[in-house]
Each structure stands twice: as C-alpha cells, then as structure tokens.
Amino acid sequence: MPLNLNKLIPENLRHSRPAVWATKRYYELRNHKLEKLFFTATTGRSGTTSLTEIFKAVPDSVSYHEPYPIMNEQWLERASNGDEPSVNNYFKTVKSVYIRRGAIGSRYYLEANHLFLKTFISPAIEEFGKRLEIIHLVRPAIEVANSIYRIGNWPGTHDGDKWWLSYRAQNNVIGIADLLDNDTGLAHPFYKALWYWYETEARVARYKALYPRVKFHDFSTTSFNDFEKVCQLFNDLGVCYDRNKLSGLIGTKANDIVTKKGKEGLELKDALRMKDSFERVLESRGMLGNLAVRA
User: Fold this and answer.
1) How are strands ordered across the β-sheet holding 215-220?
2) Which domain holds residue 73?
C-alpha cells in the first residue's frame, strides 16, 4: 500500500512548490520499475472502458478508466478558453502526482481518459517525455454521434460542455459555431455530436504533427473483438501479455450507458445522410481534409 503523502502534508502547503517537488520525488523513487505510460486520444463513448479491461492481460501493469482528477468541467472550460497556464499548473501540481502514485509498483501505466486530449496532453508529454505513448482509439463517427445523441448531452448542453467540447470555444480546429448556431440545415442536435467527432480527430492530427517524436498507436474499436488485432496492438505497444488471459477478456462489453429517458438513436440511413451533409459543409470551408477517410 503506497504511502499517501497528502495525509502528512498540511492542506495549505500541499500544492506549494517544495511540497510538490518532494512528493513527486518520493513517488518517482517508488516508480523505479515504470517503463511506459499510455494515454488515450479519443472521443469517449469509444471503448475506453473495454481497453482498461483487456489491459489486465498485461502483467505488472495498472489500467484506469478516467481516474481522479479527470480534468473535466472547470479544467476543460479553462483549456477551451485558452487558459493554458492554470490548466498546466494544475496538471503539474495535482494530476501528475496522482498519476505517479497510481503507477507505483508497476511496469506499465494505462489511463483511458478522453480528457487527456482536451486538457493535459501537452504538459503530460513535457512531464513524462519518451516514456509516454498514446493510443489513438477511433470509433466510427456515426456510432459516437448516435451514442452521444441517445444520452442527450451533446455539445452545447450543460452536461455536454462539461465532458465533451464546446463548439463555441475559440481554440477549436473546426470553428463553425456560426453555422451550428444559425444554419437551420444544421439545427438537429445530431450535427453537434458529429462536430465533436470531427473536432476530436482534427486535434489528434494537429498533435501528431506538433509532437512527431511521440508514438501514436492507431486502433479501431471495430477490432476489439478480433484477438489477433488486439495482440498486434499490444505488440506495437511493446508490452508483455498473457495470451490465454487476453483471450478470455476479448469481447467483454462495458459501459453501455443507456438512460431511462434516453433518446432513440437515428436510423442508419438518416445518420449517413446527415454525415454526408456535414462533410459537405466542412469541405466548403476547407476543413475536411483527411478526416472523411477515418469517419
């Protein structure tokens, strides 16, 4: 059981520079076995819970699904508004400490958390350097959008902006708030859920270009039930794993959120029609690029 230094340091001093340095140093010494840290670049509603489950086939590893602090709500809002200094400082003084504590005794650390891409990818890369690798987990656009639509918290809603992204944020790669707010042809909320998928993938592309030395491992959620493709992912990650244990974990369905008051998803023909219409809008503004290939 790792020592919790938070209980030993007075609360008013816990996030001071000397306390953070000492805490990180202690946990780093306890992390002498830690070789790699894996994070996910993904939309959410994309198999992150399943990923944490199948990673249990990797000995000497820990896998977490959206562990505290998740970095959503106020930190997502601050990141979306360009307040990088406060977000980065919170990562360095709080989030990174929890990561180190959670990794104690392990060779590999996996955090499946879609907030990674939105709030702390840059400070995490700076903090952990070449030990950090990213699993780019992709679920088809229509499936993600329909899942968000069924839950009823698409971007622009109170809960949606706490977890996904605000389509009105100034730092969006795909900035089409004027259309999503005013174009009657894009009034259906499914378009906002679609926008979120394309915005997420556009950000992944941007970070791949910004950090060419960071390893990104692309993996489609359609391959979760394919034993050999999951094995290939683990081989690419460079981790040892128990094939027999992995075989028993393949196909496990997790985190199928359906609320009692949830909406029915769109029929496939309607979703495809709206996706094609949305891509034409993006193309007219020069924002589609290679995103259509992955959608």
Assistant:
1) 61-65, 108-112, 36-41, 132-138, 215-220
2) 31-294
